[in-house]
Amino acid sequence: MNRQGGSKTRTDGVHQRLRGDILGGRLVPGQRLKFPELCERYDTSVGAAREALTRLAAEGLVKTQAHHGYMVTPLSHEDLADLTRARVEIESLVLRLSVLDGDMHWEAQAVAAHHLLERTPFFADGDHDHPSDAWAEAHATFHMALLAGCGNRRLHDTARALREEAELYRQWSVSFGQEPDRDLPGEHRALLEAAIARDPDLAAELLRDHIAHTAQLLISCAEDEPNSTLGGTA
Q1: Which residue from 23, 59, 188, 220 has the fewest beta carbons nearer than 10 Å?
Q2: Are 107 and 185 within one domain?
Q3: What's the number of CA atoms in the CB half-sphere (13 Å) around residue 123?
Q4: CATH label of the domain that carries residue 36
Q5: What's the structural domain count of the chain?
Q6: Domain boundary at 72, 105, 121, which?
Q7: Do 204 and 93 share a domain, yes or no?
Q8: Which of 161, 160, 169, 164 is nearest to 217 (CA)?
């Protein structure tokens, strides 16, 4: 029993470190993930590394290819178009249900998460190309706090998984958060206000626009040709 517990703890640790390195840009999209290198990098066993990669594949951050093993999920316009279409429909539905079903504790958690997001520096010292790890975590926490009031666990978990996949694109867009004509903090503030005002229609509409606006920007970080169907998400 203790041995199993220790193995799970080691796997959890490798999973979190691998996930952080992928979302933090230290492992790049399309990079092959070889077991000897992973074992040395994270001082772990092949078994723990394999289990961590299996979890990351389920989260959409890692892909498998026949005869090539595991790699960080490559970025593509086609994948982003599919991902955005799914997020627009599912996340807006989950937020609508969250606004309708959430209690006072849900409201308080959303307000607290927004307070933290507003006060977390967007950039880390010395890196003005990508959002800081702290801001990315606060951003994810805020959006998940908005969705947490939804009582349908299947829909909620699906929305969370889609958001995690989209994080890879956000981290690799050098323009995200720096657009001169966009008020990103204002978008987050408006989402919170609509949610706690218990206006499900407005909250869902704002979230759909928020997701689509970001997707139009993130397409610039993918290497393949733009997919014309993406324009339909705006």
Answers
A1: 220
A2: yes
A3: 11
A4: 1.10.10.10
A5: 2
A6: 72
A7: yes
A8: 169
Q: Encode the chain (234 residues) as per-residue pLDDT tens digits.
A: 344 455 678 899 999 999 988 887 788 888 999 999 999 999 999 999 999 999 999 888 899 988 779 999 888 888 888 999 999 999 999 999 999 999 999 999 999 999 999 999 988 777 666 678 888 889 999 999 999 999 999 999 999 989 988 887 777 665 555 667 789 999 999 999 999 999 999 999 999 999 988 787 766 555 554 333 333 333
Planar angle of CA 19, 141, 164, nearest 5 degrees: 40
Q: What angle do CA 114, 89, 107 make, to 5 degrees?
A: 25
Q: Is the dihedral of CA 96, 99, 105, 109 positive or negative?
A: positive
Cβ neighbours of residue 67 closer than 8 Å, sequence gap 6 or more? none
Q: Output the domain CATH number for residue 176.
A: 1.20.120.530
Give me the domain span that covers residue 6.
Answer: 2-72
Q: What is the pTM of this model?
A: 0.76
Read off the tokens for 191.
């989402």
Report the phi/psi class of residue 25: left, alpha or beta, with left for phi > 0 and alpha for psi in -120 to 50. left
3 state DSSP class of 124: strand
Sheet strands (E) in the chain: 32-33, 62-65, 69-72
Q: What is the DSSP string of 127-185?
A: B-SS--HHHHHHHHHHHHHHHTT---HHHHHHHHHHHHHHHHHHHT-TTTT--TT--HH
Same domain? For 43 and 88 the reply is no
Amino acid at 12: D
Do 156 and 51 fall within a single domain? no
Report which of 18, 21, 9 is spatially closest to residue 53, judged by C-alpha positions.
18
